[in-house]
TrEMBL record:
Species the sequence originates in: Lactobacillus delbrueckii
Species classification: Bacteria, Bacillati, Bacillota, Bacilli, Lactobacillales
EC number: 2.7.1.6
A Gene Ontology cellular-component term: cytosol
GO terms (BP aspect): galactose metabolic process
Record field: catalytic activity: alpha-D-galactose + ATP = alpha-D-galactose 1-phosphate + ADP + H(+)
Active site residues per record: 175
Name of this chain's protein: Galactokinase
InterPro entries linked to this entry: Galactokinase (IPR000705), Galactokinase_bac (IPR022963), Galactokinase_CS (IPR019741), GalKase_N (IPR019539), GHMP_kinase_C_dom (IPR013750), GHMP_kinase_C_sf (IPR036554), GHMP_kinase_N_dom (IPR006204), GHMP_knse_ATP-bd_CS (IPR006203)
Residue ranges occupied by any GHMP kinase N-terminal domain in the UniProt entry: 94-181
Subcellular localization, as worded in the UniProt entry: Cytoplasm
């Protein structure tokens, strides 16, 4: 990434030179989908596509942010204003605003404002956590430039709070944790209930990860996402009549089967079954990875997609076409949707020397079936949000 572009745009917009640059990645998730808000495990990592920012201080109390991805739209708000409200006309600024409000709640006064030019090469709204990328970006700008002492896990939690309370999405901790805490060439095996985590080397031999983006526009993802969260809570309450559990992530497959009569409602049963089995698959997948048993890892990843398709019902024709056509290709170990679903992206793990043919063939099937093109990205696994 040539950072001159950022510096130049900063200078043209704000008529001053930038003093620092930041990078905040997006994320993929190897396995463990819709388990985070169920107190289960996830296995994500940060990717080299992400959001960049050029920073320069101001003498007044304004934060002025210009987005290169939004036609250089420029929005300013006041620091010290602890009653920052969401802006309905510039939705993109709300991730910055929410995070700024919550960081200020946690720390001492910030005495002067700043200008920020932001640009990202992460496809937005594509299930690769562009919003967490932005939240952690502004989180680092605030903590590093103003010497605020906020623990990195706490910073991720403030990002989640921004989603939950400022944006209105009942999402879990996975995205912000992955974006902020990742290490190069590793995936994070995270227990979302305790936040205990281990870094496992992402050793895929002669395979590589290909990100496949549906390019589907206009989804109802947010309301459907909140519905799934609610359905899992309902199923948990029913199980709590006999089981002393806090989350679906607290039980294994056998316990679930034994007590499933308590749920006794088809939709809730399917949602809960996904949450329980997906959590167990994630634990098994990290063992398979440690044992270098790639075939088993691949089967678990494929099973994750099937469960998200039929039990959790968050895939849709676009993601099913990507995963289904990936499974048919030579050299493809596995594929599944990632993130919230309903559009967005999938990943495939493919033999390096067959990656080009893979993209061409899956791309053609997708175009023929869906009527427009998918996009493909090859992911490098990188460190979490940092100053450049
Ligand atoms: C979105 C949410 C995450 C997680 C995933 C599904 O990315 O932000 O918290 O729930 O969906 O696993």
């Amino acid at each position: 990434m040539n950072t001159d572009f950022l510096k130049n745009n900063f200078e043209q917009t704000f008529k001053q030179e930038s003093t620092d640059l930041f990078f905040s990645p997006g994320r993929i998730n190897i396995i463990g989908e819709h388990t985070d808000y169920n107190g289960g495990h996830v296995f994500p990592c940060a990717i080299s596509l992400g959001t960049y920012a050029a920073y320069g201080p101001r003498t007044d109390k304004k934060i002025a942010i210009c987005s290169g991805n939004m036609d250089n739209d420029l929005v300013a708000f006041e620091i010290g204003d602890r009653k920052l409200e969401a802006d309905p006309d510039h939705k993109w600024i709300n991730y910055f605003k929410g995070m700024t409000a919550y960081v200020q709640d946690e720390s001492r006064e910030i005495d002067h404002g700043f200008n920020l030019y932001v640009w990202g090469n992460l496809p937005y709204g594509a299930g690769l956590s562009s919003s967490a990328s932005i939240e952690m970006l502004i989180g680092h700008v605030l903590t590093e430039e103003y010497g605020l002492e906020i623990d990195p896990v706490k910073l991720a939690q403030l990002g989640q709070k921004t989603e939950n309370e400022f944006i209105g999405l009942s999402s879990g901790i996975m995205d912000q944790f992955a974006v902020n805490m990742s290490k190069k060439d590793h995936a994070i095996f995270l227990d979302c209930a305790s936040l205990k985590h281990d870094y496992l080397p992402l050793d895929l031999g002669d395979y590589e990860i290909i990100i496949m983006t549906t390019n589907k526009k206009h989804t109802l993802a947010d309301s459907a996402y909140n519905d799934r969260v609610r359905e899992c809570q309902e199923a948990t309450s029913k199980l709590q009549e006999k089981l002393r559990i806090d989350h679906l992530g607290d039980i294994d497959e056998e316990t679930f089967n034994e007590y499933s009569y308590l749920i006794n409602e088809e939709t809730l049963l399917k949602r809960a079954r996904h949450a329980v089995f997906e959590n167990q698959r994630t634990i098994k997948a990290t063992k398979a990875m440690a044992d270098k048993d790639l075939d088993r890892l691949g089967r678990l990843i494929n099973a994750s997609h099937v469960s998200l398709q039929f039990d959790y019902e968050v895939t849709g024709k676009e993601l099913d076409t990507l995963a289904g056509s990936a499974w048919q290709q030579d050299g493809c170990l596995c594929a599944r949707m990632i993130g919230g679903g309903f559009g967005g992206s999938a990943i495939a793990i493919v033999k390096e020397d067959q990656a080009e043919a893979f993209k061409e063939k899956v791309g053609k099937i997708y175009q023929d079936t869906i009527g427009y093109a998918a996009s493909f990205y090859e992911a490098k696994i990188v460190d979490g949000t940092h100053k450049l």
